[in-house]
Amino acid sequence: MDFNLSSEQKMLGDSAKRYLSQNYSFDIYLDQIGSNMQINPERWQKMLDLGWFGLPFSEENGGFSGSLFDVSLIARALGEALSIDPYVDNIVLPGKLLEFISSPTADAWLKKLIDGERTFSAAIYDVDSHYDINHTNVILEDGVVNGQKSFVSNVGEVDYLICYAREASDEQPILFIVAVEEEGVEYKDCRVLNGSRSGVVTFNNLELTNDKILCVGSDATAAAQRAIDYVTVLECAAMIGAATAAYEKTLEYAKIRKQFGTHIGSFQVIQHYLVDMFVELQQAESMLFMATDKGAVKDVAESQAAISSCKAYLCKSVVAIAQQAIQIHGGIGVTEELDIGHYFRFITHLSLIHGDRDFHMSRYMKRTGLEDKICAVNMA
To answer: Of 158, 203, 278, 372, which sits 20 to 30 A from 59 (CA to CA)?
Structure first.
């Protein structure tokens, strides 16, 4: 596998970092977590102008056919800048849902997303589903939808929701689209661990016409799972970006912080900590390269095994890097005024969405057949 970036990928990564250095900062982040608005119109327009909205999607749908690795460069830059602008949650995830549905109706909605005409959010999970999308209490019966979805990103700022539900008659899964302000849709949002906003959406006798149903049956499940897997890789990239920034800031701090009359970076134990962080970071990057490569293959079991192995590994190693960064900084590392503690919360939040370490360890074992082998050994 070639780990070298192409000239186009280098340009993409550099332009993302340059955009964020000019348009985002820790002060902006602090203002953002204190505000109810996460989608900043000025930055949203600049991301659209840079082509970020179209990058993840095929040229047939009006996009630029960027690879999963290409899009991960943007996600990584966002993580490194501690940016909670919801590019992944409100552009890539709903867009990939629409693209993987692959119907004329879904394609028409996707074009509106790529052109920046409408904003979307995905309502996939129930509060008690433990990442199982098929465990849902949102039911369509006789043309009326009732139930509740949780973890819906920036529900108060978007125009439409793409929701995963099931039919009462035959338990068939469905994906449907509905306007946030439509009668029968109620929502309440709150701040989550990384400072962004997520909400609960309640459907109370929502009348659903056939033209709002985007996909039915196994195709709906496949589209939703493929979209989740895609953005899981991007969240891994954002985790590594944030961990890289935390490591570099900690390394600089160790060079200037004095204790007992000397820089703490001269202490052997601190040097060991920093080396451990660096090694973990390099291994995490290798896992990400593997996930961006294998995550795009057509074999579902192979793709999901690669993505889950990456996420499971990062949930331990990258979180440990953030914890060690706070340890080296000491008490100041958990203050609101210093960004290190915010990087820790950012990374911890990403480690818990779209599957935690236990979920992905379990899925990896199932997709690789290890679960059956372990059961066979235990029964022998």
So the answer is: 158
